[in-house]
């Protein structure tokens, strides 16, 4: 089943991805994006060059993206306001901070701090949203460092099963 995942960047607009619903379990909703899946941003559009698996749930302020890029296989976590189901799929408001685990060396970093600071300073996110982003990014980075959650490896397995 085709699902539209919309990622809202303030003030940048809506970025969307056409993905496939593959599962629901205790960890949330799993969406798969095969190579060639359509995406669009306010000033660009294209097709996914690598396969991805996305995990989201409406009671968590993040969405996880397993990115099977041979040049940089990684797990990215989009810190966001809790995702919302829509009539066509899902949407969430991006809060800019992105903890990322790189498979090549196990390195974990939090990306886009500059975008976060700009969004916070310009008033595009409230003080409460900024605090949620900061705390969630640190918590998610720690989960990526410790590898303590079963959904971390489940995402790679599910991505491999879709190929």
UniProtKB/TrEMBL annotation:
UniProt cross-references to InterPro entries, sorted A to Z: DUF402 (IPR007295), FomD-like_sf (IPR035930)
Lineage, highest ranks first: Bacteria, Bacillati, Actinomycetota, Actinomycetes, Micromonosporales
Name recorded for this polypeptide: DUF402 domain-containing protein
DUF402 domain: residues covered: 50-144
Superkingdom, natural source: Bacteria
């Amino acid at each position: 089943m085709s699902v539209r995942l919309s990622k809202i960047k303030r003030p940048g607009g809506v970025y969307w991805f056409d993905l496939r619903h593959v599962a629901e379990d205790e960890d949330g909703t799993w969406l798969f994006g095969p190579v060639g899946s359509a995406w669009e941003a306010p000033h660009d559009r294209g097709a996914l060059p690598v396969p991805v698996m996305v995990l989201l749930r409406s009671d968590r302020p993040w969405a996880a993206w397993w990115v099977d890029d041979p040049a940089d296989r990684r797990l990215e976590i989009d810190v966001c306001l809790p995702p919302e189901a829509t009539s066509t799929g899902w949407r969430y408001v991006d809060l800019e901070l992105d903890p990322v685990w790189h498979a090549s060396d196990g390195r974990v970093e939090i990306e886009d701090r500059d975008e976060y600071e700009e969004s916070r300073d310009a008033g595009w996110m409230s003080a409460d949203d900024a605090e949620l982003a900061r705390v969630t990014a640190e918590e998610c980075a720690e989960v990526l460092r410790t590898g303590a959650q079963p959904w971390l490896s489940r995402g790679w397995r599910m991505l491999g099963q879709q190929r």
